[in-house]
Amino acid sequence: IAESLTAYFNQPSAQKLLQELRDSGLNMEYLGTVEEEAPDNFFKEKTVVLTGKLSDFTRSEFTKKLQDLGAKVTGSVSKKTDYLIYGA
């Protein structure tokens, strides 16, 4: 495969195409890897209230998980509350 690629890019038609791409502004320099910014998550910068009995986590474990996702966890509902999570 490597030999085929080398042979192709050594052809005059491929060289011409590469030059046209460069002339049109295509950057062919390797700039290293780019770390993608983590996408916003559902709870980022949201105010959350937990209520009821949580079956799979303790309240403090669930609070920690929400905080790790960027949520502010409060103890009571107010006009600033974005989400109310109710455990049965």
Automatic annotation (TrEMBL):
Pfam family, any one: BRCT
Domain of life, per lineage: Bacteria
Lineage, highest ranks first: Bacteria, Bacillati, Actinomycetota, Actinomycetes, Bifidobacteriales
TM regions (residue ranges): none
Ranges for domain BRCT: 38-88
Protein name (Swiss-Prot/TrEMBL): BRCT domain-containing protein
InterPro entries tied to this protein: BRCT_dom, BRCT_dom_sf
CDD domains: BRCT_DNA_ligase_like
